[in-house]
Amino acid sequence: xxxxxxxxxxxxxxxxxxxxxxxxxxxxxxxxxxxxxxxxxxxxxxxxxxxxxxxxxxxxxxxx
Length: 64
What we know:
Transmembrane segments: 27-47
Shape: rod-shaped
Helix content: 55-70%
Oligomer: single chain
Keywords: Membrane, Transmembrane, Transmembrane helix
Distance between the termini: 80 Å
Strand content: under 5%
Number of strands: 0
Region (Disordered): 1-21
Radius of gyration: 27 Å
Structural class: mainly alpha
């Protein structure tokens, strides 16, 4: 067997910090999106009932 085809010395490659980064990034992305949705929903709740979209939203909810 040629020496270049030999297995490298040292421990076998295990999970490194680069394999954990995408998982952490997915959680951060999820929390970011949830925060945006929360802010959007809160802004809808705080709309005045007598103007524009607030009138449509609260009028539709009151009609039920």
